[in-house]
Amino acid sequence: MTTGADRHVVIVGAGFGGLEAARHLAGVPVRITMIDRRNHHLFQPLLYQVATASLPTSEIAWPIRSLLRGHRNVTTLLGSVTGVDRGAKTVLLDGEPPIAFDTLILATGARHAYFGHDEWEPYAPGVKTLEDATRIRRRILFAFEQAEWESDADGRAPWLTFVIIGAGPTGVELAGTIAELAHDTLRGDFRNFDTRSARVILVEAGPRILAGFTEDLSAYAERALKRLGVEVMLGQPVSDCREDGIVLGGAFLPARTVLWAAGVAASPAAEWLEAPADRAGRVRVEPDLSVPGEPEIFVIGDTAFVAGADGKPVPGVAPAAKQEGGYVAQVIKARLQGKPAPGPFAYKNAGNLATIGKRAAIVDFGWIKLRGRLAWWIWGIAHIFFLIGLRNRLAVALNWLWIYVSGHRSARLITQGQAGTARKAQ
Amino acid sequence: MTTGADRHVVIVGAGFGGLEAARHLAGVPVRITMIDRRNHHLFQPLLYQVATASLPTSEIAWPIRSLLRGHRNVTTLLGSVTGVDRGAKTVLLDGEPPIAFDTLILATGARHAYFGHDEWEPYAPGVKTLEDATRIRRRILFAFEQAEWESDADGRAPWLTFVIIGAGPTGVELAGTIAELAHDTLRGDFRNFDTRSARVILVEAGPRILAGFTEDLSAYAERALKRLGVEVMLGQPVSDCREDGIVLGGAFLPARTVLWAAGVAASPAAEWLEAPADRAGRVRVEPDLSVPGEPEIFVIGDTAFVAGADGKPVPGVAPAAKQEGGYVAQVIKARLQGKPAPGPFAYKNAGNLATIGKRAAIVDFGWIKLRGRLAWWIWGIAHIFFLIGLRNRLAVALNWLWIYVSGHRSARLITQGQAGTARKAQ
Q1: What CA–CA distance (Å, rounded) separates A1 from B348?
Q2: Domains in chain B, start-ordered, CATH in brackets?
C-alpha cells in the first residue's frame, strides 16, 4: 500500500467513464491526474435539448474541477492530449510537456462520423459538444428569422424545412423537439408566416426508427412522431448534403437546416496506441478493458470495443461507460492491494429509454416495456435523477415543468455574431 | 385616426429604449417594425454577472419576438442596419432590401470605446454584448486553468493578475465579483496554487471610484472593495495595453487578463443621419428627442445626447432609455390624434445603485443614501423586479440565492474550442 501513494494514474477524458473511474479511485492511495480538452463534464443525453433551445448550456454541463474538488488526490488539468508514448509511458499534449503515468485510462469518447463524407459536416452538423449544440440552435432559430424576411412561400420553404438524418434516439429526439418548437413554442411569434407550415423530416436508411428497440416500440415511436407532425422517411440513404439541401433517393430536397444523427466514430485513441480497432475506430480491449499487451493502459466508454459476455458488443451509452469506469477502478485497486483481479467486465443493461417530444417516450427494461405518457415521466425522472448535483436537477426540473405547462422555451438565444455574420454563417 | 393604421413606425434596436417605445405604441393604430442585429433583448445591467460566471446567458436575455409576441401590430426582424436615407425615408440593411418608414426611432445604443486606442481591444475587451461576456468569462476561467499548469509562482503570477480599467459601476462590479470568484468560489478547486493568491486590480484615471456618486458613498465603496481583496489604483491613466500586461504610470504590470470598463461611444447613428453629435458620437436631439430638422426621426437611449432640464445631460442608463422610449411614443400618439405635443422630455432620476460584490452596495435616492447589506438587498430586489418575465426573475433569484448561501457559481463554462485553441485565443 505504501508504494501505492507514489503511483500516478492518468485519466484522459472526464465524460461518464473517466469521471466514474476518478471517483472510485478517490479513496485509493494513488495520485490521479484528470486531463480533458474542456473544463466541463457534459451530460450528453440531454445535449439535444440545448440544440433545440429547451435547456440553457449551463444546466447540462459542470466544471470538472468542481465535480472533483472534494477528492484531494485528484488534480484536474485543462489540456489537449495529442498522443501516447507507450515506451516512455507518457501522455503527449498540445503546448504542454508530456505527462508520465504508471497507469493510464483513456476515456476520450466519440465524435459523429460521416462514413467517408466529411465534406458534409458544414452542411449537416452533428451534436456532440456544447459548441455543436449552440451552433445548431443558432441555425434552427436563424432559419425561422430568415423565413420572416422572405416575401413568398416558395422563398420561405427551404428555410422552413428541417431534415434530421438518422433515426436513432438522438435523431428521434431532435425531430420531435424541433416539431414542437415549430408547431407549438414559436407559434404566434412571426407575422409573415405560420410556423406550423414548417416541415420536419426524419430520414433513416434502415427499415425502421429506433432499431435498438423492439419492433412494436419503434412502431409506436413512429406513430408518436407523426402525431407531432414529423415526416418519417425510411429506407432512404442520403447520397449528398449541400448548403441548400440534400439528395435523397436521387431526388433533391431543398432544406436550409440539415442535422446529422447517423453515426459516430471513436476518438483517435487506437491510433495513439497503435492498438487493434474495429471499423468505428474503437480499441478492441481485453476482458479486463486493458489494451492487448499493455496491462497498465485501459480504454473505456465510446472509445472501447468490448465484446459482451453474450457476444453482443457493449453499447455506446452513458451507463455502459460508467460501469466500465467503475470496473477499471476495481481492477486497479485489486492490483494495489495484491488481491486477485475481478472477473471479466460484464455489462448490466439497466434498460433502454427514448423520448419523442414532450409527452411520449418508450422504455424497455427487458422484463417490462412501457410507452406513452407514463414512459415519458419515467424518462424525465430517470434523467433528472442522473443529473449530477442537486441544484442542476432542480433547475432542469423547473425548466421542464415550465416548458411542459407553458410551452415556452427559455434558451432561444442566437449568440455569436450579428444578423449579417449569422447569415454568412449559413 | 384612420390614416394612422397606414403609418409605418420603424424602431431600430430592441434595448430598453426601443422595447419601451414599441410597447407604448402597441395599442396605437400604426404598423410597427422592430429591427435588431440580435434576436434577443439583453438586460445589460447584469451582463457583468455573465462575464464572471454568476449567471448563465439565458437568464439575462430573451428573444425579442417573444417579448413582443402579444402586440399584433409589431413585426420583429433580425437584421443589421447599415444606414438611413433621409431623403428616401428608408432604413438601409445588410443583405436585405431597404425598409421605408414614416416615423423612425433609432435606439441603437453604445459600444465601449478606447479613446483612439482601438488596438487595445483584443487585449482589454469590454463587456457590452453576450458574446463579450462569454469571451471574458472564458478568459478569466482559462487564466486559472493555465496557472494550474505553471510550475512556479513567477510563472503563475501573470495568469493570476486581473486588471479592470475604469472604476465606474461596471468596473467596480467586475472587480468585486472577480475577487469573490478567486477568493471564495474557486477556492479549493486547484491543487498547485491557492486561488486567494490572485490579484484583482482596479485602475482608475480619476481621483476616486464611482465618481457618479457622492464622495462618502464612493469612499465606502472603495473600502468595501478593499475588504474583498481588490487593489484600487487611483489617478493612474493607462498608457498601453498588451497581450501580457499594461503600462501604468510608466511601469509595466504583467497581467494576462485585462478588462475594459473605461468608456463608451455611441453607435454610428449620427453618421447615418449626418446629424450634429457630441464627442462620444451621440446625436444632439431636440427637446422632443427628434433630430434637428427631422421631426419624424427620433433618437433615444445611449445614442442620444439629451441636455436635461437642469442643464446636466441625461445619463446613459437603462431607466433614462426607458423614459425616452415611453416619451417618444407619447409624442407620436399626440401627433396621430392631432393633440398638442407633450412638453420637452424631462428625465426623472429614480436613484443610483451600484453593487460591490456579494453583500455590499450603495444606493442614492437623493432624499436618502444607503450603503452595506441593506443597500445590497435593495439593489438585488430592484434588479430582479426589473427583469422581464416572471420565470427569469424566479430563475435569477434562485441563482443568486444559491450563490449567496453556497458560494458556488453555476455558469463556469469555458465554451468554444478546446484547450489548445482556447490557449491560442489568449
Answers
A1: 73
A2: 4-37+79-112+264-336 (3.50.50.60), 118-262+358-425 (3.50.50.100)
